[in-house]
Amino acid sequence: MYEIKKLNPISDLIYNNLDKANYRVTDDATDPVGILVRSAAMHEYPINPSLLAVARAGAGVNNIPLPKMADAGVVVFNTPGANANAVKELVICALLLSCRDVLGGVAFAGGLKGKEDAAKQVESGKKAFVGPEIFGKTLGVVGLGAIGALVTKAALALGMKVVGYDPFFTAEKAKSISEELVFTTDLDVLYAASDFITLHVPFTDATRGMINADSIAKMKNGVRIVNCARGELVDNEAILSALEAGKVKKYVTDFPMPAVIGVSDKIVTIPHLGASTPEAEDNCAVMASAELKDYIENGNIKNSVNCPNLSLERKGAVRVTVLTREANAEETIKKALGVEIAASKRGDLTYAIADLDKAPADETVAAIAANALKVRVIR
Asked: 10 Å Cβ neighbour count for 134?
């Protein structure tokens, strides 16, 4: 029986993969082999020796200490694309909210309850909430992954023009999203061309505060910025200054950080609703639990964010997997086991899989483990 710990509530669809005959999923497991997590902070989480993997039901993993997990031989998975449609729909909503002051108008209309001249006040007061259309305007999409691609297609369908940027894309790959997408490898070009900008990149040291005074200065006057990716991508002091000066017309964020809450009617703060749909939560749960099961039972790694990815159909009675930082790992493992191996690298990490007809001797496993982060013999 494998113990799995839940650090957050998660859809019961996990049991489609983690069958109750072989898995015990609880929120109080003391020695789990796997962890399912959504937003719970794990930076101070004690890593028990039996822990094999952590599966994040979502894309962002800034709540998980990735290097620390790798050092302990723990594979961390995420679920790219599982919540992409949910986030796309919120981004389209955010684009519209950045134009007409729908929220202000709704509050205004609600305040007319019980007033006999409500209809008259509506007609005289609605001009305060006027805003432009998105049709025909240019949207800059920063990041063309699963979410960025869907946003691009939706924006084009709504009659917008789209300029896209992604450091991991080529012009040819961008065409697979849409022939209408104008691809650039220069963010400055995107900034200069866009009436609206939406962010879809991970939060890293390189992307921290990427929307700052310098980048805003390169944008059109009156640009409207949507951030449904991560709050830390935007320098809050810079955005507040730009809003006050009129350089930025509206800022809509799904991350209501203290610096931007209630400080300006030009900021719309959404309470992190990007993946808050039952469909997205189900999709993430199914993908996360499938990743855990395949790794626990077969040693296959797919969608890891801290270890090499390698997935193979099993061909022997026993599978040996090795995660190591040893420089000549492939040669060492192959020699020790006496069979061909498959291996994959990520930075200085090597992950190797070997299928055998019978389990290797304990001393062989011990010799490999002496220079490895994690060695498993899966029967």
From this structure: 20
The reply to whether 166 and 226 lie within a common domain is yes
Q: Which residue has the tokens 């679920």?
A: 79
How many C-alpha atoms does 124 have within 13 Å on its Cβ side?
A: 6
Per the CB < 8 A criterion, the answer to whether 184 and 164 are in contact is yes
Start-to-end CA span in the chain (Å): 14
Give pTM, 2 decimals. Answer: 0.85
Smallest CA-to-CA distance from 163 within 148, 326, 306 is with 148
Burial of residue 17 (CB within 10 Å: 0-12, 13-18, 19+) is middle
Per-residue model confidence as pLDDT tens digits over 94-114: 999 999 999 999 999 999 999
Domain CATH code at residue 340: 3.30.70.260
The predicted model gives 20-47 an average pLDDT of 95
Within 14-166, residue ranges assigned H as helices are 66-71, 84-97, 102-110, 118-125, 146-157
Q: Tell me how crowded residue 306 is: count the other CB atoms within 10 A of its CB.
A: 22
Domain CATH number, residue 245: 3.40.50.720
| Same domain for 230 and 89 | yes
Q: Are 276 and 39 in contact (CB under 8 A)?
A: no
Q: Does 321 share its domain with 252?
A: no
In this structure, how many other beta carbons lie within 10 angstroms of the beta carbon of residue 172? 8
Q: Which residues span the domain enclosing 150?
A: 84-95+134-269
For 14, 248, 282, the CA distances from 9, given in Å and listed in that order, are 11, 38, 12
Same domain flag for 75 and 88:
no
For 230, counting Cβ atoms within 10 Å of its Cβ (0-12 exposed, 13-18 middle, 19+ buried), the class is buried
Strands (DSSP E) along the chain, which ranges? Answer: 2-6, 23-26, 34-37, 53-56, 75-77, 138-142, 161-165, 182-184, 196-199, 223-227, 248-253, 267-269, 318-324, 342-346, 349-356, 374-378
